[in-house]
Amino acid sequence: MLKFARMLLAVLALLAGAAHAQNAPTYQAFKFDGQFTPQFLNDLGQVAGVGPDGRPMIWHRDGSLQPLAGNVSQLTITGFNNQGTVVGNGVIPGYSLPQPVVWRNGGAVQRLPLQGLGGYTEGINNRGDIIGYMAGASNTGSGQVGFIQWGDGAVPQLFDDYFPHMINDHGFVLGRRSGEYGARSWQDGVFGASSIDDLNIRALNNEGRMAGTHESMHAFSAIDRAGQREVQDLWSGTAADLNDAGSVVGETEYSLHAMLWYQERAYNLDHLWDHASYSGWTLLNAWDINESGAILATALDPLGGYGKFLLSPVPEPQAAMLLLAGLLVLAARWLAQRKSLTRMASASLLAVLACNAHAQEAPAYRALRLDGQFTPQFLNDAGQIAGIGQDGKPVIWSPDGSLVHLSGVAGHFSLTGFNNQGTVVGNVTIPGFSQSQPVVWRNGGAMELLTFAGSGGYASGLNNRGDIIGFSSGASGTGPIGFIEWADGSAPQRFDDYRPRLINDMGMVIGGHTGEFGVRSWQDGVFGAYHLAYDYDIRALNSEGRLAGFQDNANAFTLLMRGDPWEHQELWSDYAYDINDAGSVVGETEYRRAMLWYQDQPYALDRLWNEEQYAGWMLQSAWSINASGQILARGANEWDAQANFLLSPVPEPAQGALLLAGLALLGSLRLRPGRRSA
Predict the structure, then answer these.
(1) CA-CA distance, 678 to 323, in Å (whole number)?
(2) pLDDT given at position 475
(3) Dihedrals phi, psi of 5, to nearest 5 degrees
(4) Has residue 529 been placed in a domain?
(5) For the chain, how many structural domains are there in total?
(6) In this predicted structure, what is the pLDDT of residue 668?
(7) In a domain, 576, yes or no
(8) 118/95 Cα distance (integer angstroms)
(9) I need a surface site. Which of 134, 144, 350, 593 has the fewest CB within 10 A?
(10) CATH number (domain holding residue 502)
(11) What percentage of the chain has pLDDT greater than the value 90?
(12) Residues forming beta bridges with residue 186, ordered by sequence position
């Protein structure tokens, strides 16, 4: 029993460590269908919104939709509280102007009993206090009267020159006085000493903390303490809501990513949700968060379609895996005493591992941020990277962190290829030459000039055999002359009217004929029978002959010109840049999201890495992928600072936990003391 207790304490310690290390929750996603547009979320997980007929509805956690009664047109909903009360504005029978209206406890619509020709609600708190203003209700210059309709039935609070905009559960109000630019507080009959002119406030919690956007377009969280305002910048962009724990949701300014501020740290929400059905979706903005941390957000699918989601926090998967591992370890001690169950337990464990491995559709990634010493451009299968150093000359980065500078003359370099032997090809503008020249560096050696007919040339790329392709200006001025320089030393292949652009390891070439708009293949002396239309922009070619690229004003695709019809697969909107021999593709969407196509499914790469040190980063583009699935990508943090990353696939943590459990189980069975014979 003592050993059992020790083992149980060890499992609990592991779980406690996992919980301490988790700084933000993960989320499960529910997508609302087209029958309902969500707008407000209460602390019970209910959602108020508008149905397809423009009338209000309440969505419940069991998935049911409750229509709210009443004839209201031009409806806008402005608030929803924990009692299920909905407030808004709309035109109702008997009135030509919008009126302040309320639905209490799922009942019929009611107009607030206030004087005026028309009016607007601004919100409601959990006590049922409703704020807003009425028009045509006073003899003041504006003809408008602000109001608080108290939830306890007390006489309404009216203001001749103050318009409430938000109210918390303590009756603390933020609003605007006539003639003032910023917000001013009010509580218990007393106005705040000064207005808040430099902050655009969007949300208020029960502590009195505010969230919004200030003049420099930074999202903020702020609170006044003893006359001193504490302002904390969150990210570059806007904040839309906050809860009493101080968690804030909103979006970034330029790249339109949904953001979460949680326990003093900014998180890109795409790092925190995972659902196989929505692997290619990315979150654009988040506008509501309740006390349990549930969030309303808008997302974009891979082809540019929109959807509304409810994100609900779930228990940390790592903790669940550790709990399972701990239970298996404890079960191992019990099974060790029952030899007849050993085989069954081992088989069950292997089945669990196999199912878990099968369920993992895409790898998780760890990120290495590449410092500013060079700009990465190409990635080979050895994990080496070719790029341009700070001096403008080519370099090769190796996985041990070393950087080899390649020799070369002064000039402007552009790299076009890098293979598994460490050979780099590119082009350089050299003093004394009027046009760029194709060059090569073999195995880290000195720069060699590739000389062909004509005054200038261009190296398009190379394959892993070392075959180099390109084209040069025709010596006679008749047009471009394409070339393939074979790595085996055989005579170069020349083309009078064909420009090679890509070559795979089988020697298949993709290029363009003079006079043709589009590309055509070539292999072993034979041109392909068909050429692609001019709007196909081919960027990559793998050893199978599968192409990756994008169409003008259309989508990223892969294409295999084999059979009838050709195998054409649309991936996402807009760009595909590289493909490996497994058929995995990388690129980006028109909304600056780095994307991965893996086993016939699109994935937003932000969904596949979740490292705490890069919590607020967003991957905007991915342009190179090697045989092991490593990826070169570019990203920006919550302040729009840019950086390049090498993403490397890592084992799924759940598999690691189960593997640990399996080893513990097998080890306990192995170490079980046997009986000694007399």
Answers:
(1) 42
(2) 52
(3) -65, -40
(4) yes
(5) 2
(6) 54
(7) no
(8) 8
(9) 350
(10) 2.120.10.30
(11) 66
(12) 173, 191
